[in-house]
Amino acid sequence: MTLKPREAAFDLSIWLRVLQEENHDTGTRELHGTLVQFGDGAQILKISLPADFSAVHLSMLPPGSSPSSVASLLAEMGFSVPVECVRVPPQGDATHCSADIRVEDPTFARRLCTKLDAKKLTSGVTFQITAVPINAPMPQVSNSSRVDCKKVHCSWHRPFRKVWLNFGNEDIAKKVNYRFNAGTYKVLGQQVSSIACNRSGGYHNPVVWTVCLTEVPATATEPDILCVISPHFRPRDVEMRQTSYKADLGTANAMIKSKLMQVGSLEWWEDGAESGGKRVKAKARFQDEEHARKAVTFLNNTPLPFNKNGKLTMQLVYSTKLKVSERIYKAVQAQIQTEKQVWKSQHLLFIPYEPTRGYRVLKIEGEDSKDVAQAKNSLEKILAGETVMCGDKPLWTPSFGINGDTYRRLKDVEQNLGVVIIRNKSQSRLYLYGPPEKCREARMLLADLAKEDASDRHAIDLDEQKFIWACHGGFKAISAALGKGVVAFDIISSPKRILVTGTDEQYKLALRMVADQKESEELGR
Predict the structure, then answer these.
(1) What is the rounded average pLDDT of the residues 167-183?
(2) Is 467 left (phi over 0), alpha (psi -120 to 50) or beta?
(3) Which residues are CB-neighbours of 155 under 8 A, at least 6 positions away?
(4) Is the dihedral angle over the CA atoms 277, 283, 289, 292 positive or is it negative?
(5) Which of 69, 84, 101, 380 has the most CB atoms around its CB within 10 Å?
(6) Which residues are 283's β-sheet partners?
(7) Would you say the pTM of this structure is higher than 0.90?
């Protein structure tokens, strides 16, 4: 029997309500690259195209920036951006932050970049912030993982110089040399290497004891060096040698970025910061994975355009993302924390983004593809949960699939034990998430619940005609006649059924009403 359009729409609306109730879904589905949000009765509430979104990458944000602080900063500039549209990943250094903002407004990225360019003529923190438009990916609507390697890390040595410290006393020279090598003395907060030697002096002092400091930051001055040495250990004089190269940081960043753009188009580029160690570290993301790979192949370990004696280091970054409901994430957070210790030892970065509409995106990033793949598998295993079994078969009773009294008791188990129970109605399975000891207790309670349900439940099978009758008022009438919580509508099983959890008299009454099949218009009065 073929359903009429109205009947088909009603059937789809039931499925959508089931999905929304169980998974806290918004009813949004991706269809051929377009996001469609459904309402009751399969009504289309909203259609979003890729062209409706725009995104921007902000860099040089203040240290410690958060989604809320970035949203507040944008609000001061006249842009109303929900906090959930802002993502601030953990940063590799504390000198600045970056953020990605994606909103459903095709003009947002252009307007923000124009505004920030104008702000550069003013003072304040906004002056330093840079913005570049990036591709605006459509929001994720499933828990499918994504793996890519479009991102690269670029690094090179900062300019440095040699500094000679001349002493007239061998013992003092050795003590100063030791303190520099041990890190007791640092120049501009950075440890430098030190070599002690002696060389010929003048007529009155035939021997000068010298300490040679290497890799001293080019910006360091003589007072910067003297101020870290104890007054009674200070040298007779200081000789500052030439820096390893003359290019300033802005020029260096621009030249490295230019080399990358010769390989392929960039989604965004993040300049290396003024401070943060002996090496400058910049980041870039290509629009195409092929170009990222090519850039690493052809540019890694090549001479710097501004320093022929220095080398550019390029490293490909692999990343994977998974989307999970916030309540599942909280239930398995302790398990993820244990895995994080392994990932940290492998130099992998784990980023749990702030939740948006009940869901959280988890990201793993690293420079070793095998380590990232293994971490992804470990994370997927945790997020898959544990199938509740009864012997060698999944534990299931039809009442688990409907929102009746059995389901309410299932939710009580969830709440009392602090676990999460997910129903997979299409596969007739329950999945458990939470601490192992709590999951063991939940399994026993669920097994008891399934046994109790089987002992006092009656099922009324529905053919196609009776199912349509039930959808159009029949089930509502039975529910009203028998009382709240006594009957449930099982649309998952085949054939579809009405379940009665009550007395024999209530079951017989339901049977009579199904057999009579009064017209739905009559039943709805």
Answers:
(1) 92
(2) alpha
(3) 272, 279, 280, 281, 282, 312, 313, 315
(4) negative
(5) 101
(6) 153, 270
(7) no
Sheet of 97-103: strands edge to edge?
86-87, 97-103, 54-61, 130-134
Do the beta carbons of residue 405 and residue 485 sit within 8 Å? Answer: yes
Q: What is the DSSP string of 270-323?
A: EPPPS-SSSEEEEEEEESSHHHHHHHHHHHTTEEETTEEEEEEEEEEEEEEEEE
CA-based nearest residue to 280, from 255, 298, 261: 255
In the chain, what are the domains? 5-48 (no CATH), 49-139 (3.30.70.330), 142-158+248-383 (3.30.70.330), 160-243 (3.30.70), 385-455 (3.30.1370), 456-525 (3.30.1370)
Produce one character per residue of 273-294: b if its CB has 16 or more CB atoms within 10 Å, e if not. beebeeebbbbbbbeeeebbbe
pLDDT value, residue 244: 92
Cα gap 305→316, rounded to integer Å: 21
In three-state secondary structure terms, 497 is strand
Of 27, 5, 18, nearest in space to 357 by CA: 27
- What tens digit of pLDDT does each residue of 345-362 get? 999 999 998 888 888 989
Provide the Cα torsion 210, 211, 215, 218; round to 10°: -60
Q: If you search the block for the tokens 């188009």, which residue do you land on?
A: 265
Mean pLDDT, to the nearest integer, of 122-128? 53
DSSP SS3 for 12:
helix
**Cα–Cα distance, 382 to 435 (Å, whole number):** 11
Q: Average model confidence (pLDDT) for the chain?
A: 81
Q: Pairing mode, if any, of strands 130-134 and 497-501?
A: unpaired
Contacts of 19 by beta carbon, 8 Å cutoff, 6+ apart: 25, 27
Alpha carbon of residue 431 to chain centroid: 23
Backbone angles phi, psi at 185, to 5 degrees: -100, 125
